[in-house]
Amino acid sequence: MPFEGLIGFWADSLSLSIGIWVVILMTLAYGARAWAHRLIHETARFTSLLARYMARAVRRATVRLRRWYLRYLRGVEARRLEGRVERVYRDIHGRVNRDLGGFPALQQRIHRHIDALEHDYHSAHDQVPEEPGWMRTANALAAAPPKADPRVGQVLEEIHDSLARSGREALEEYRRASQSRMEILKGLLPAWREVGDHIQQMERVVRGVSDQTKNLDRMVGQYRRLAQGGVPARTLTLASFGTLAVSGLVLVLLGLCAAVLFFLVVPPMEQVLGGAPGSSVAPWAVASLVLLLLLGGGMMTEARQVSRIIPAFGAMDPRGRQWAFTVGLMLVVLTVLLCATLAASRDFYVAQGDALHMLLEGEPELLWPGVDWLSTLTRLALGGLLPLPLMLIALPLQAFMQSVAVVGVGFVLLCLSLMETLLGGFALGARLSERLLKALYELLIFPPLLMERGYRAWCRKRSTDPRESSSARMPAELLTLPEVPSGRKGPGASNHDKP
């Protein structure tokens, strides 16, 4: 039966049929109200519990992932601090050996200069000349009472002349001594300057070592806090975005270098290896050369502990790391030489092919085509320079991997937190939607509900009003006959019932 026929099943009028169907459906919905409410309640409860369990599972996964993330961040920060501590320690060691290694010799030189200065200083002291012996005689004669003897005056005049002459000689001697002392003091100035320069140099070295030691102590304190379970700095997460962008750009540039090197070396490699045009192994050979170059560069950086992608190199002894560095260096050197040689020989193979083509065409005079040495040298330089950045690919690769892990796990944690919030809100919405769905269901069947409410109100009113209840009971009492007690007869009793 089509839909129009189903609607017009009850009457010829479409509106009347629709009204009858609405009444039927509303009656059925009213009759199933209790089961519908129960279905809505159970559905909302099931949905809410399911969302809550999912939110709890997401929360547990977030907690476990956050713990792993913090451990990973501690490991990254610890490796970064280890590298910085190692570099600072090497700087301190080199500075102490370079600047403070000659401290004993410098100390001896300073002591030697100080002894010379002390000797010159004592030599520059004022030395008072000794008093001559005849001064006591002159003092005794001067203290004696004057007499009229002329010989005494003559002696005194001679004494006066001697004193004057001795004074002049003493003054000249003092002047010469003062001049020599001034010369000695002038000679002290370069020694004092040299001692001052040595002391200032020593002070600068000690101050630099002290600053580096304080920096080393601060980094060791950070490493100790990380080892004890401290939270890494937020700057590590923020810096990972910049590191990710820079390392990704460097990897793209290295990929371009590898592609240029590949297409530069493939044609001469095809000429060397030969083979059919469609089945040449030259691309595979060039790819193997590039992989050997990457392997050699990785072995060099891992052996020197510059990169730490492969933990096995960290467990090797110094002799094994030196052996790995030597092998990697040999691989890099051989690969670079081979790539440069193949790139430079491209023009020669092209010239050889042109000559062979001219010979096959039957040229009477076969001349060897010229070689463009500028392009040859350019290819030689490219073949030698392009492999060099590829040998250091382990450094940006390690930075890129660490940054991807930090940024990616942080993004996953953010998504899990948002999912947990959405699931919690969905669970709350499911509980709240129960009342809304019940209200909408009752809105659809509001006419029977209004009739039910009116009937219930009328029943309550009947039960509370005694007059209405007695008047309502009167028809029933009138319809029932009174009971006749035993031993009595009613007015309508017949005579044949008598004994």
TrEMBL record:
<keyword id="KW-0472">Membrane</keyword>
<protein>
    <submittedName>
        <fullName>Uncharacterized protein</fullName>
    </submittedName>
</protein>
<feature type="transmembrane region" description="Helical">
    <location>
        <begin position="377"/>
        <end position="397"/>
    </location>
</feature>
<feature type="transmembrane region" description="Helical">
    <location>
        <begin position="6"/>
        <end position="30"/>
    </location>
</feature>
<feature type="transmembrane region" description="Helical">
    <location>
        <begin position="404"/>
        <end position="430"/>
    </location>
</feature>
<keyword id="KW-0812">Transmembrane</keyword>
<feature type="transmembrane region" description="Helical">
    <location>
        <begin position="244"/>
        <end position="266"/>
    </location>
</feature>
<feature type="region of interest" description="Disordered">
    <location>
        <begin position="465"/>
        <end position="499"/>
    </location>
</feature>
<feature type="transmembrane region" description="Helical">
    <location>
        <begin position="281"/>
        <end position="301"/>
    </location>
</feature>
<keyword id="KW-1133">Transmembrane helix</keyword>
<feature type="transmembrane region" description="Helical">
    <location>
        <begin position="322"/>
        <end position="344"/>
    </location>
</feature>
